Amino acid sequence: MKSAEAETDAELTITDAALLLGLSPELLSWLTSHAPKSRDIRKLEISRKVGAVMMFRQAELIDFNKWLAKPWYAEPGKRPHIPSGIKTEIVTEAGGACAICHTNPDSCEAAHIDPVAQSKNNHPHNLIWLCANHHTVYDKGKVGPRDQEGDFVKSLKISLLSYRKIFFSVQAEVVRKAFYLLEAGARAELLNPTTPEQVQAVNKFAEEIIGEVLKLSKVKKSEDNTEAFDALAKLDAITASPAFSAESNIRKRLHALTEVREEIRLAAGMVKCPLCKGAGHYSYHDDCPVCGGDGAVESRVADYFDPSEFDEVKCELCEGSGHFDEYDSCPICHGDTRLERRIAERTDFAAFRKVRCRLCKGGGTYGNYDNCPFCSGRGEVARGKDDTFDPKEFGQVRCDVCNGRGSTKHYDTCRKCDGKGELEQRLHELRDRREYEFVECLECKGSGQGEYGDCRQCRGHGQLPRYIRDNL
Questions:
Q1: pTM listed for this prediction
Q2: Helix, strand, or coil here: 267?
Q3: Long-range CB pairs of 245-253, under 8 A, 24+ apart, other chains included
Q4: Collapsing DSSP states into helix, strand and coil, what is residue 66?
Q5: How far apart are the C-alpha atoms of 295 and 302, rounded to whole Å?
Q6: pLDDT tens figures, 298-322
Q7: pLDDT, tens digit, for every residue of 237-269?
């Protein structure tokens, strides 16, 4: 049998990758040719192509997905940009309309489940498509009772993601589609709507699930696979029973599907998750890290499962204290003192060991800085940060706003270089020249005049730097 390490670096088709990450094949394909984050060139890496079929390394998919969930770059005072591929993903997920009221398609917008001000996270799993009205009331905590609205929207989002999984695998067998439909139905049954709008959202979601289940009953079954045929025949019998009629309560119809859920699971070659034992969650993980919250996995995944990977071991960096160096809590175990063995084995603890700062040569000061800008005056940095050191970033280049003069038409001291005429390469790249261009003052419309003399915003110039105008 292959090792667990070999399995985590297995080669997957785009369909398997979609099922692994909960992202559509369309989005995965888009991510291979577009860098989603501003000021970052990373794209999803393809391991190889077989004809027109893309193949991916599982380790790359997992690492890319984690990177996608980390904070995105945003200009000061602005939100990180949501690229078109991710916007299309969440629009499709919600059926082109608001995920709560299923109306107002023309006024919908992306809403962040975890507030963007804190998360800076545009991962599709942190976004949900809502109409302007529900976006506003959700942000203000008015979608249901205050202590439940967050859990409801998060649960609805998880349910939508689970439901979409069935459409990712166009080559999957009918029985596999049935399995994920029943899983989505189980999630929908567990939702606890408390307002009419929430009830409507859940009912709409449940009706779509039931509609797809009914479509399966019209698909011709193959008797070559006896287990699959028998399981789907029982599913057909349930959908044809009085308990599943349109007159029955929506929850009763969902509950009726549970009678054949186990047989469908077995017929699809799925087994109970060996880690969470079918619960869908494990330890501090909201979603089980092996099954992704489904409670079941393919039998091949279970064959490679190694329970020792999830044993907790003492954190090597903080030596079990929960604290390390200048950090308030250990940057690896986050103060918990222990971590799972699989994480410990993949972590380069040596990257946090200190080495002398190459910019200030260990002195703690550099040039006109009281504190070295690379080591913050400590004279040393973690080895991982030292690996990123580029002396060119601290070299001086001519300021492209004042052209080296140190002053501009409107200011005696250039705002970009602070009047020096030059600045470090790293600062030159961070401070976009366009932000310092003079544009028309919005208050006086370029006249320079206000109600009592000179305009108070542009001080009579009629223009002001773009970065000042945009932040007014």
A1: 0.43
A2: helix
A3: 250/203, 250/206, 250/207, 250/210, 251/189, 251/206, 253/206, 253/210
A4: helix
A5: 12
A6: 766 877 889 999 999 999 999 999 9
A7: 888 888 788 777 888 888 888 888 887 877 676
